Amino acid sequence: MSDATPQGGTPDPAQPHLADTAQAEHITRFWDTARPSAGRTSHGGAVGERSENVVPPPAWAFGDNPELADELLALVLAGTKTATASLVVEYDESAEEMPRRGDLSILLDGAGDPRALIRTTEVETVPFDEVSAEHAWAEGEDDRTLESWREQHERYWRRTLAGTAHEFDPSMPVVCERFTVLYSE
Description:
Elements: H1 18-34, H2 51-54, E1 59-60, H3 66-77, E2 83-87, H4 88-93, E3 104-108, E4 114-127, H5 133-139, H6 146-161, E5 173-184
Parallel strand pairs: 1-3
Antiparallel strand pairs: 2-5, 3-4, 4-5
Helix pairs in contact: 5-6
């Protein structure tokens, strides 16, 4: 139970969770260190300063569990993983915007700690069954073949779509994103 949880055990939605506040502060400290690697400088929040230099970019982790997040992050940090993929319906169902070339993101590890700053270099949306072998290789997972990419991603998306209004279909549009690491810890 976090300190923001009332004694009854049910979190009060009006109260921020202290862990969330601590994580936000950790991400902001990471951004303060990493942002020069992205060509972003700050003047200490001076009046008229551009928010893109002060406010951290979106922070997220790969996968749907801490182990997968750590596994995929390790591939990024080793330079093996330079691409990722998401379903368009995942963006449709959330308030997140689809990635665009030039976007910055902070990658989190399985514990929610910021570990890398990346810049999106390329975005292409194609049906699942038209994802290229080149993209599968760039994702750096398993044996890096298109066959294993399809098998693993179909299994993953069937699992994550379960209980939603969507079912996996090989014609589902996939956002294929390439990125480069600008800074890592």
